[in-house]
Design goal:
The chain is mainly alpha-helical and about 325 residues long. The protein contains 15 helices and 3 strands. Strand 1 and strand 2 form a beta hairpin. It is elongated, with a radius of gyration of 23 Å.
């Protein structure tokens, strides 16, 4: 049974990060990760956490809270430990007299074991290839909903936008003449960590034609959003009835599944379109200046983030590299 004060303390922390401007998706993600911490502590008060056996990182390797067998993925363990450290550092400052038994040195032990690190497992990195995007772009939409989702899929590949930002993108933030997107929270765009940036799109004429056709249609319809709501009769929904909806990212992915089935290609999520854009560009980057430009366009905090995520080339790229080396 979860100790009540522990739950109240995590609730206070969640209220804090919401107050300082973290978006609802981030707060929801942190709540889920801190749930692991609550279940690990069980009835033990957090100030006595250092006495719990097994330690939190070890616990994560063999427990999860969704009813499935096994431990968390390395990425999830890393995030769970990261937010647990942030929580303990914050709550210790807020309630020092109660948390004085929790030392900063102990907090710094909350890291996954090396055997459970991201580098300890092999992952086949999946992403959209440009040929797959072109197959979708070549489809003849059966209705307005498919036309919207087709344009959305192509737009996400050309722009590398995160789906959460894309579905909140106002028409006024899209400038196809300059191939620019204003990802500004002040315009209502839900970017990660509320970052603001003016980003570029790939200049691929055949794919841009799909995006341009939808852009003209959505502007003519008077929709304030580039990815608008469409009803079950495949008509634009009156903007007065609401601009956004709770499951908007899920709606994009459902639309992508339909298009993938029609094109006869394996389904990959909307986020894999962002990966596809990044890999497409990484294969063409020639120097550090270009890598930095790509990193900024992806709205990463540093070039190291971009390089760390996308420089792990797929096996075909590695094979091609070695096949080209001769004595």
């Amino acid at each position: 049974m979860i100790e009540r004060q522990n739950w109240l303390d995590t609730k206070q922390y969640l209220a804090h990060i919401e107050k300082i401007g973290r978006n609802p998706e981030t707060v929801k993600r942190v709540r889920g990760l801190l749930r692991h911490l609550l279940e690990w502590a069980d009835e033990t008060p957090f100030p006595k956490a250092r006495m719990i056996d097994p330690a939190f990182p070890a616990y994560l390797s063999s427990n999860r809270n969704d009813g499935r067998d096994g431990g968390l993925s390395p990425a999830s363990m890393k995030k769970a430990c990261e937010y647990s450290r942030m929580f303990f550092n914050w709550i210790r400052g807020e309630h020092f007299s109660r948390y004085k038994t929790i030392s900063t040195s102990w907090i710094e032990t909350l890291y996954p074991n090396k055997s459970n690190s991201l580098q300890s497992e092999y992952y086949e990195h999946k992403f959209w290839e440009i040929d797959q995007v072109r197959k979708i772009a070549a489809l003849e939409p059966k209705n307005l909903t498919e036309e919207r989702d087709q344009a959305a899929l192509v737009f996400l590949f050309l722009s590398a936008m995160r789906a959460q930002a894309f579905v909140s993108l106002p028409v006024d933030a899209v400038d196809l003449r300059q191939f620019k997107i204003s990802q500004f929270p002040k315009m209502g765009v839900h970017t990660k960590n509320a970052k603001a940036a003016r980003t570029d799109m790939l200049r691929l004429p055949d794919l841009l034609a799909v995006v341009q056709a939808w852009d003209a249609k959505v502007r003519a319809a008077g929709s304030p959003l580039w990815y608008p709501r469409i009803d079950r009769w495949h008509r634009f929904v009156d903007p007065a009835k609401g601009l956004c909806w709770v499951t908007r990212r899920q709606i994009i992915n459902e639309g992508i599944k339909v298009l993938c089935e029609r094109a006869g290609i394996p389904y990959l999520s909307s986020h894999k379109l962002r990966h596809g854009h990044a890999v497409y560009m990484m294969r063409r980057v020639k120097d550090m200046k270009q890598l930095k430009s790509l990193s900024q366009n992806l709205m990463h905090s540093s070039v190291a983030t971009t390089d760390g995520i996308y420089a792990r080339l797929v096996q075909d790229d590695i094979a091609n590299l070695y096949e080209g080396v001769e004595e």
